[in-house]
Amino acid sequence: MRLRVNKQARILEVDRESADDEEFSLLKGFNFISLIDESQTTAANNFIRSIFESNEVQLCRLELKIRLDANTEYLCVGIPGNDEECTLVARKVFDIDKERKWIANSQARLRNLFNRMPVALALIDTSGQFKAVNPSIEKLFGYSAQELAGMNLKEIIIAAENEKALVDRIKASHEHNVALKGVKRGGETIHIELSGRSIDENAELINVFIFDVSQRVRLEQLKQEFVQMISHDLKTPLSSISLFLERVGLGKYTDRQPEDLMSKANAIHEDTVRLMRLIDSLLTLDKLDEGFAKPDKKAVSLADVIEISINGVIDLADSKGIVIDEQYDELTVSIDRDQIVQVLINLLNNAIKYSPCDTHVAILTKRLEGDQIEIRVKDQGPGIQTELRDSLFDRFARLRPGLASDGTGLGLAICKAIVEAHGGTIGLNSTLGAGSEFWVRVPI
Structure pTM? Predict the structure, then answer.
């Protein structure tokens, strides 16, 4: 870069052809000293003055503030002209060590950003081989970075196409993410979405963002199940009630026998009770989720809790000829009696409902290490399919999907919410053809 300046260091002309940056061509009219770092102002003034006083070529290394974000060091050569003007030639000084340090710092910042990304991020080649992964992807899939380094993307994703076709589909996902299923260590499947971007012109390396959308998918399923519940469990009885009242208003039942009218009224009453039970369940679950139904823990006899629970289902058991076996410890436990009774009645009710007639249902207790009590409800029913067990405690889940039932699909979800509010856990063991065993563990 070549400049013509006067004694006051004012830039009179910029040789545009020699300017190595377009911004330099805009410097005409500026004072050269104003472009110098403040720590070198005195040196710059002495440099300009010595050019005119000595009438000889002068050299000086100065940092110029051409940009706001950084200073750049230049080797400036002052060439005398006449008494009023001189020529300055400035060339960048490339400090190899400084450049290397800047590159190293940039790489460190990039690695830090890569590792801190809350989204699972992987760098793969065109064959799908992992080249780099961040901690989020390790956490999501359960594999370490060292393990993933020897793996292919296809090994943790369920996809019909081969590795190359899968990578090509991900690279093309600029506007719409690719929805697939991932496989975690241990075989658990999750719903994921992938988005890929090539990071070089040759498209040999691809950045892949992997989003865990399992919760969103589950919420969408719950929404669909809720709509189905509204259309069936709410709309059907309401339609019956509405039709009955309409026919009464039109005098359609005036010629009916009293017993026929009473039978129809009883059916409508049962529909109304079922509606109220569904609404109560929804309200209860909402209160538990929001923390408005915290357990009112008091010291109570475990034997009393078991006996009250059995009494709540004894009529149903007798109607099917089912015997309830009980075995419990004589303990005093600190729980919300009404809430735990609600849990046990629900579990006993399900056990009786799905057990064959003239069989046995058992309720057993056992004290565990760590001051916990375990209560188990065991039946001799058909058992529960493996694929249904993970979602069994979700809202609107059914023990026997597709079969008519007077249940709301909320009972086990309420049980889980109550038990967890007590600081406990709930689960089940089941064998097809041999029955199921639901267990509840809560602190004493």
Answer: 0.49
